[in-house]
Amino acid sequence: MLRVSFISLLVLLITHLGNGRSFKENSNLISDGIDQISHSSILEVDVKVTTVTCEAIYGFLPCTTSVWGEIFMIVVYEFLLCFAEKYVSSGADLFFQMFGTGIFGASLFQILGTIPQVALVLATGVTASTDTVEAQAKMGMSLLAGKTIMLLTLIWGSVIAFGSYDLSQPSDSSDVENKRPFSLTGYGVSTDVETYHTSRIMIVSMIPFLILQMAKVLNSSSGRRIVVLVSLTVTLAFLFLYFTYQVFQPWIQSRRLEYLMSKHVQKNLLLSLLTGSGRPDVTIIRDLFHKIDKNNENYISPNELRALILGIQIEEVGLNEDDYEAMVMEEFDIPGDSHITETEFIKGLSKWINKAQHPANNQGHDKPKFSNSNSKKSTEEQQRLLAQKKESSGTKKSWLNYIKATFLLILGTAITVLLAQPLMQTLEEFSTAVNIPSFLVSYVVIPLALSYRQTLKAITSARQKTEKAISLTFSEIYNGIFMNNMMGLAIFLALVYIRDLSWDVSVEILVVLLICTAMGLFICFCTKFPFWTSILAYLLYPLSLLLIYVLTTFFGWS
Q1: Phi, psi of 189 (to 5 degrees)
Q2: Contact partners, residue 217, CB within 8 Å, separation at least 6
Q3: Could you tell me the pLDDT band of residue 475, with boundaries at 50, 70 and 90?
Q4: What is the largest CA-CA distance in the chain?
């Protein structure tokens, strides 16, 4: 409600700005009418000055000819665009969570997430004149390039910067005392195998960009038109293959769903035993031991430990209630003296917390000791719980959720379509006023609004400082880059081909091709990234701007 009120107040402020300007113009006309009696010559000059006005696209939106006014309007449009992207993403994610993995999860719900970017290009490209389309289609390509580069440099580097931990120890280690001092090479993040498989899929999206470079060596317009058609066909084919692959190999969908659901983790006592970095807090665990040991005997009984484990729901990692006490003692009571000391309690509980946070790592040789003797029973229990979760999830699919998701998608799309033309026009007028290429402004400004929410979510996930969280975050970034490249390029090339626009290979395509290929080749062969790689990623973003400046200024690229 507060956000709605704030947006309403902002709209009223914009409207008042437009009315204020109209009142000023009317006041000038009145004063000119009075001066007409005695100063007719001055009147002619005043009329010429006041007739230099702007024309608003929509009646309720103001327009301005001053640089500061254009900056204000850009800030307002960016703010509203952030809300539009949030509504669209929330609606698509809600649909994905309700339907789960499947045909729609592999295709439709990923396409829905690209609506803001697609709408910004289509809203001006369908109805505008040819000259306007050519200028704003170029800005749309800059939007595509800017978002891709921002995801792979600033956001990718932030995941490493905020998620770094001591690489000499496992990511789930609770041994704080033996951690090394921070260093650029000793600290960093590690990822799983599926993550660099996802990065290899991301590199495939560079092939249509490489095909477009052939247009640079062709002098005929028909040859360039053929190159555009071939690149468009390859792009659409890659999209179809990507969706089909996810239907038969749904591991990408499962990881996306796990990433989305990670923020809905149940808040129980287990989370209170973690540090801010997501690791077992030895101090809190030690205090918990002394609270349980009310008799100050320096040990606790199996019954007391059983009650604690029930409270923190450690049974989710495989602890069976039938032989609870025996299993607990086997895991926590190493000497077998039927007493659990403080040291045994800290080590045992830290071990179970780590397994609760990394259920995927509890398979194979790292299973709990009792799992070997009860593997069949544990498997049946897990299948039963999984069936119950699916059934419970099915009952929660109410019409209210469908209506909410649909409303969010429609609202976000409507805001984007409404803002598309005035935003593009304001960016173009601002770039002309300050003598900066319009495509360079859209390269930086629009991706900031479209990537703001994704950046915050990536940093929040990375701050867990676990391999699982880092891997899921990177996979989400790589999937986002693939969809951004394929959907954005498909819409742009379709617009160029259908409307037969005069278009040359832009510098943004070359920048995307160079940086994404270089980063892709680096990340698809590594599972560990030291902290210094985040600095390198940060530097690549201003380097991309410098490369655009050099190619456009000194080499005459468009």
Answers
A1: -135, 160
A2: none
A3: very high
A4: 111
